[in-house]
Design a protein that fits this description.
- By secondary structure, the chain is α/β, with parallel strands linked by helices.
- It has a single domain, classed as 3-Layer(aba) Sandwich (Rossmann fold), CATH 3.40.50.10310.
- It is about 45% helix and about 10% strand.
- A 4-stranded parallel β-sheet has the order 2-1-3-4, sandwiched between helices. The protein has a 3-stranded mixed β-sheet with strand order 5-7-6, covered by helices on one side.
- It starts with a helix and ends with a helix.
- The chain binds zinc ion (ZN).
- The site of zinc ion has 6 residues, from helix 3.
Amino acid sequence: MTKAPWILTAIMTAATLAAAAAAQTKPPTTREMALICWQEFGELVPARVRTVLVPFGSLEPHGVIPNGTDSLAPEAMARDIAVRVDALIAPTLNYGVTEAMKAYPGAVSIPAAAYAPFAEAVLDNLAANGFKNIIVLNGHGGNTAVLNEAATRVANARRVRVLVVNWWTLADDITKAVFKENGGHAGNNETAYMQAIVPGHIHPERYKPEMATPNPAPSGAYYAVPVPSTILLYEKGQGYPTFDAGQAKEYFRKVNDRVAELVLDTIKKWDLAGVFK
Ligand SMILES: [Zn+2]
């Protein structure tokens, strides 16, 4: 006996729907876009996962912690919060704009004129792949202006939502609570965050307090290239690295909690407003 064509179509439709439903409830085999296969990606985005985390970093000197700190920090952050915010993680952009620090050994700086279109193309492609919420986890202040501009253009052109997070500024009050003082570039805050991730690559034996210089005060008072120190204190007399393992753990957890909270809250507000849904 042969089945009528409409029955076959109905069976096939039911099977397709069941497969789609299964794909929607099954957790992803990985959160990393670089590890996922294209078939699974196609099943997940945007039907099941609408959010992506993209770490943007830099390769530049950082006191006595790794040159890749600005990439390693947001990458670890992305891995820690991806499940909580139900997101995939795009590969990290390990290079950034760091003209004022390129004099130091091992630094690589991409000029803003080359970096801007590259960064924008990455965000644009993520939108084209179906992500509705693109969360830029920025690890480097020199990238911020370029990233804000790229975010604005891609959001409005592609009708997606883009959030650029500068974690060290977002965590300002956490820094002050954990260390009882302000932080600095490669200071107590960044050093602690890195100590929590790669304790074997922190070098207190190379550290001397005179390696630190306060940022110009008042802001804009002067500008030096190359920067005279790679530990740059936000405030004079505060922000020196502490190398305390307990503080490192506490800081890592509190910063990540704060970033996850911002991401979830911002998406909730975008949904509530109904913008670029
Ligand atoms: Zn840094």
